[in-house]
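Subject: Protein record for review, amino acid sequence with backbone structure tokens
Why sent: The fold of this protein is of interest and is recorded here as tokens.
Notation: Tokens come from a learned vocabulary of local backbone shapes, not from coordinates.
Attached in line: The record itself begins immediately under this heading.
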Amino acid sequence: MTDESKTPPDAAAADSGPVSGLFKSIANLVATVVAIAQTRLELLTTDLQEEMHRVAEILVWTLIALLAALIGLFLAALAVIFVFWDTHRLLAAVLVTSAFFVIAIAASVVLRVKIRTKPRMLDATLAELAKDREQLAGRR
């Protein structure tokens, strides 16, 4: 065997020296920070999408409540007009009017529940950031 095929001891020491270990630690730290940032951004986008769906749902139920109430009022006005007509037209108008009012009341109740039980915006993201802060503070 020749000395050329062997790795010189100085080259092996340079690969596993303190400077190499420092660079590996910094690279691992950067990779960890990037992974944490990516996870938090994904959580943030998920929270924003959920909030958009909640707002859209609240708007739909608001529209249903308003339309049902308006139709109910219109039919109530027709019922008053029908009072002076022949026999059972009033009963039909009152039943249809009542049905629309029931729909309006149900939509209003659903809307109230949705608004009261709505979680705070970005709540999951803020909770995860608080956990991260506690873990980093515990390492000191």
The CA atoms of residues 40 and 128 lie 8 Å apart.
